[in-house]
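Structure first, sequence second, as always.
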């Protein structure tokens, strides 16, 4: 989830930092989503001294103009796992994909995520359909074609759970091979590894 370097995240912000938890990647499994947030996600961040709040992008599907101001009240924006394509749809419908880069450049906000939340930070989602259903949707979501563009916060594709004790690990390994065969740059991540990007420089911290 936070990998083996939660101390790095703590060091990147202030004590008692406020975290906006975006779990829209699980909107197609609402019962699991509620349990996951209350039993795993919020307690995990609390153990590291963070103050968390659920931040539902669906609340901004019809009022994109309020999103940037509301997110600016936080120190960290964190997107959880689930379906990468569903999360990407929520980010498009809410206007998140238009405001996240300016927010990161103009403020001290930190964006982070695990699994789907990290995948969408990449330049595109090519090959991720080998792991996630690209047609996933949920009630209240606008219809439309699958979004293959990532947020572009890193200049390569990102595939988590590679060579890990995770049910998606075999599909993730195959996804990496597909992306490489297409000529795209890809960064595979084993569970426990963390990619940190500061001042335009990306570093992968090894699992401990």
């Amino acid at each position: 989830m936070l990998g083996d370097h939660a101390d790095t995240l703590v060091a990147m912000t202030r004590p008692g930092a406020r975290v906006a938890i975006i779990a829209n990647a699980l909107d197609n499994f609402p019962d699991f989503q509620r349990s996951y947030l209350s039993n795993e996600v919020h307690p995990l961040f609390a153990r590291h001294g963070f103050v968390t709040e659920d931040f539902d992008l669906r609340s901004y599907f019809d009022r994109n103009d309020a999103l940037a101001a509301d997110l600016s009240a936080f120190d960290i924006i964190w997107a959880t796992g689930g379906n990468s394509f569903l999360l990407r749809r929520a980010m498009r419908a809410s206007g998140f994909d238009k405001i996240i880069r300016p927010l990161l450049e103009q403020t001290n906000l930190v964006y982070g995520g695990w699994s789907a939340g990290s995948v969408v930070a990449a330049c595109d989602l090519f090959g991720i359909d080998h792991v996630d259903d690209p047609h996933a949707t949920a009630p209240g979501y606008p219809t439309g074609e699958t979004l293959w563009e990532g947020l572009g916060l890193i200049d390569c594709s990102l595939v988590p759970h590679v060579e890990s004790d995770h049910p998606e690990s075999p599909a993730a390994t195959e996804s990496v091979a597909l992306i490489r065969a297409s000529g795209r740059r890809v960064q595979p991540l084993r569970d426990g590894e963390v990619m940190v990007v500061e001042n335009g420089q990306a570093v992968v911290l090894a699992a401990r």
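Margin note: The mean pLDDT is 96.
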